[in-house]
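Lab manual, section 2.4: Encoding a predicted structure.

Procedure: take the sequence of the chain (75 residues), apply the prediction step described in section 2.3, and record the output as structure tokens. A sample record is shown.
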Amino acid sequence: MSKLPVVSGRQAVAAFERIGYAVDHQTGSHIILRHREPPCRRLTVPDHRELAKGTLRSVIRQAGLTIDEFRSLLK
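Recorded output:
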């Protein structure tokens, strides 16, 4: 298993936007993303400077990605 990268909430949002997610709205410090095409999955990403390991792993899993696939989306 690959090691999780250290990313901010904004970096994670940018990576998810590359695979079809779009910012729906923001409530407080949480950014809500929706996938444009069915299944219209919804992701909630905290807008923090550094995402906790468990939180990042959970959001990646909810998006249906592996850690390696997520790492390839980061630029």
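Check your result against the sample. The chain has a mean pLDDT of 94.
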